[in-house]
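USER: If only I could read backbone structure tokens as easily as an amino acid sequence. It would mean a lot if you studied the pair and described how this chain folds. Here is the record:
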Amino acid sequence: METIRRFLKAEKQSFFLLGPRGTGKSTFIRKVFPDALYVDLLLPDVSRNYTAYPERLREVVHANKGKRTVIVDEVQKVPQLLEVVHSLIEEKQGIQFILTGSSARKLRKAGVNLLAGRALMKHMHPFIAAELKGLFDLKKALEIGMIPLILNSTNPMSTLQAYIDLYLREEVQMEGLTRNIGNFSRFLEAVSFSHGAILNISNVARECQIERKVVEGYIGILEDLLLAYRIPVFTRRAKRAVASHRKFYFFDAGIYSVLRPSGPLDRHEEKSGVALEGLVAQHIRAWIDYSHPGCQLYYWRTSAGSEVDFVVYGKHIFLAIEVKNASTIHPQDLRALKSFGEDYPEAKKLLVYRGKEKLLRDGISIQPVTEFLLNLK
């Protein structure tokens, strides 16, 4: 695939760049900072050397006085380097440090707060439609997702399966995050049915026959490896009783597509509808991180069962979004947005669907989902 310009904005000060494997962190950094001093901790010998002697980084930086930018790729492999980076920043030599990582767990344990206020926190997401432009294919995105590593493969489905196996083996098993990889594999399949839904940990534990506390730990692993996330319910100025539990999503539609088993009893529309909601969610998350970092992503659900898929709330943005996996819109499809509008008349209401026409109905903007995604710039 040709090189795609990413919407992530590089900073002039030091920053962390976090994101799952394969989302293009290294490619982006190498392109934007071609002359930087580069430390690649994915190389076994480099990782071993810095693990044994983290102060080596200080020696290398001081020996390369002409390098004003230092990149440490996959810094969670040797988290002890954070203390060295912290002390180098304190020297105030005007050196910019860029620290990439695909695991939040080890960074937290190593005391990432050492760099609080000294390094920004940035996130790299899978491709979004507006980055791909004419290369974006909705059907393909729902099947294999938007991870650059997968889209660039000659055999995307095999690569996607290998990607999941890699995390199971390398990130989970080899780093000792769980001793029973069989239990974790069963958990992944069971929790795939919670994608785009309120997460009921007890039900997941019962489905995969694993203790509830273990399942809670597994969910934490997914979130720490940036493979999944949860969004809270919108409760500001609530006029009615609302749900309290968060909704669960895998970070990419392709991951969900592979993990969610399909059989004769499964309706294609059910799986594709959830995949579409997840695809929209990952686009909104990227749009917020890249362009509107002051915003937060929520969903809205009343105790009576009225639900709006997404609420984007920020200083200048208040947007309620409903996702429908249908080519036509019926009156009942607008009920939840109307209810939300009654409680929050300030909000802009938007419904995205699989149809081709743009409509305005009862104050609700209705857009084709492909057009909506392509306009998230």
Q: What stands out?
A: The chain has two domains: 15-123, 129-374. The mean pLDDT is 91. The two ends are 21 Å apart (CA to CA). The chain is about 40% helix and 20% strand.
